[in-house]
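FORM 12-B: Structure-to-Sequence Request
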């Protein structure tokens, strides 16, 4: 059985989360520089059995696509070209960064740790994946 991988795509950093093989638990995997994302995915997907990828879909309050969607579309085209047989789904990621920050506060992280944007991206990817598992 394959895992599900979630991506919180950003122009600078991208958070990545993954499920266990039974697809029960979503866990933060890492945050990578977006310029290194495709190389990371090639290595990871060669080593792990991933059956689908979930990519966050940033929207405004008005339900319109956010400005970063144009960059995500370029990434999705490259992803589909590199891994044509791997299903990719989108999920609304509104408020995941705020939820990630709230999670950091609730778990008792100190202010300095909460300023770690890479950690926020990884937690955001985990929230995207949990949402997919819960609603999917």
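FORM 12-B RESPONSE
SEQUENCE OUT:
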């Amino acid at each position: 059985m394959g895992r599900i991988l979630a991506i919180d795509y950003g122009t600078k950093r991208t958070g990545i989360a993954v499920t266990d093989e039974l697809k029960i638990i979503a866990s933060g995997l890492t945050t990578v520089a977006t310029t290194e994302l495709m190389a990371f995915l090639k290595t990871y997907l060669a080593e792990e059995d991933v059956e689908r990828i979930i990519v966050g879909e940033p929207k405004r309050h008005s339900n319109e696509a956010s400005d970063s969607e144009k960059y995500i579309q370029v990434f999705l085209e490259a992803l589909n070209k590199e891994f044509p047989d791997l299903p990719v789904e989108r999920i609304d990621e509104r408020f995941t960064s705020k939820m990630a920050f709230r999670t950091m506060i609730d778990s008792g992280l100190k202010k300095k740790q909460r300023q770690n944007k890479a950690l926020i991206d990884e937690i955001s990817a985990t929230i995207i994946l949990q949402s997919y598992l819960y609603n999917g």
